Amino acid sequence: MQSPRRLFVGPSLRRIRRDLGLTQADMAADLEVSASYIALLERNHRPLTADVLLRLAQTYKIDMAALARSDGSEITARLHGVLKDPMFADIDLPPLENADLAANFPGVTQALLRLYTAYQEEHLALADRGAEALDGDETAPDPVAESRRFLAARRNSFPVLDDAAERLAQTVAAEGGLDRHLLARHGLTVRYLPSDVMVGSVRRLDLHRRQLLLDDAMDAASRRFQMAQQIAHLEMQAELDAALSGAGFVTESGERLSRRALASYAAAAIVMPYAAFARAVEARHYDIEALARQFGTSFEQTAHRLTTLQKPGQERIPFFFIRVDPAGNVSKRLDGAGFPFARHGGGCPLWSVHHAFRTPREIVTQWLELPDGQRFFSIARTVTAGGGGFGAARVERAIALGCAAEHAERLIYVRARQGAGSGPEAATPIGVTCRLCHRTECASRSAPPIGRQILPDDIRKTSAPFGFANA
């Protein structure tokens, strides 16, 4: 007969105690056990007994099933993901040892995870400082770059927001929708008003009249998203604060941009709950249009959500995401797939995201190969913001979603184009940006790469924009 599995919930118990503002002695008194026993439980030196689990649930109104599932598997998965970093490639780190470390030394594990996140942020900040030095400005703070580093260091994955949003989504569904939830929980009536009445706003909370005002020119997906975003601001402030804690922002604007990004993340997680969305992406082979129809979201919202599916233990394909305007300006950039985005300057003109404007609203696919041999698969399409009526201002942008070549076979876009000349071997050679690309024969080059000497053209003019010494 198999012996029952022992339940170690040290980190979760400590988090519950701290959230309640209790000392170990306070909790011990409430549960009628000794303070030293609580300390042993929190350090995972003792398993949680069924009797104490029942007392916890009854005393603090905790879901026993949720606590029983918090057995360290998530933190083990996070640790395992961190230790996959190439920095540790020469160290033998068996998965069993990782699990033992997480289970027996949760404090040390949390410290390691926190240090790695700080390392990721500083690594990205160093890259930005180097690029800023090339542009002649090493000291000017950049709130946008600061926010992007914050998201990139965490791979745009915030399980604390996903969990809270999933619970909210269940409540919203039970109450009959986002508008009914706002009325039932906050006494807010949703009203749709013309754009000229909204005076430049698409959403405004009128607490005096207990109304949420929305621009009636928005489509259905945008309306749902704005309602979900308002709910996130009203009900998920604690989770937003937790996700932002310890980031060490240099600028107030950087923190505000990051909070705004997290509120949008939470809104997407409410309308596309993690578990349901993760199942759907596999069932539909990452078909963005089909997923958008299923969840009532826009193409861009759905593509954006695909970059967030890295919850430990429930990971899906890691994607990168970029949004550009016709001039090549980047208005959004998220990296969960290790794609080396250009942090300053333009991107590569050979990438199809810059050509998508030629075929509006059509999906353009492309295999990409970087100078170091890495290959990626990219999906690009234009999206429209604004509009909603004749003469209303519209903004056309192009977005690209991509993944590493080893994951591409799982995408419907690759399955549908099988055949000669359609695989990774047909990849377009691109660079990160001209200043960092050493493909000397590229006819689309706009600037010479760093460190290459330009040849004079008084005797010989090359077909490429520049000729280089020792090319």
UniProtKB/TrEMBL annotation:
<keyword id="KW-0238">DNA-binding</keyword>
<dbReference type="Pfam" id="PF09856">
    <property type="entry name" value="ScfRs"/>
</dbReference>
<dbReference type="InterPro" id="IPR050807">
    <property type="entry name" value="TransReg_Diox_bact_type"/>
</dbReference>
<dbReference type="Pfam" id="PF06114">
    <property type="entry name" value="Peptidase_M78"/>
</dbReference>
<dbReference type="Pfam" id="PF01381">
    <property type="entry name" value="HTH_3"/>
</dbReference>
<keyword id="KW-0804">Transcription</keyword>
<dbReference type="InterPro" id="IPR026281">
    <property type="entry name" value="HTH_RamB"/>
</dbReference>
<dbReference type="InterPro" id="IPR010982">
    <property type="entry name" value="Lambda_DNA-bd_dom_sf"/>
</dbReference>
<feature type="domain" description="HTH cro/C1-type">
    <location>
        <begin position="13"/>
        <end position="67"/>
    </location>
</feature>
<protein>
    <submittedName>
        <fullName>DUF2083 domain-containing protein</fullName>
    </submittedName>
</protein>
<dbReference type="InterPro" id="IPR010359">
    <property type="entry name" value="IrrE_HExxH"/>
</dbReference>
<dbReference type="InterPro" id="IPR001387">
    <property type="entry name" value="Cro/C1-type_HTH"/>
</dbReference>
<keyword id="KW-0805">Transcription regulation</keyword>
<dbReference type="InterPro" id="IPR018653">
    <property type="entry name" value="ScfR_C"/>
</dbReference>
<comment type="similarity">
    <text>Belongs to the short-chain fatty acyl-CoA assimilation regulator (ScfR) family.</text>
</comment>
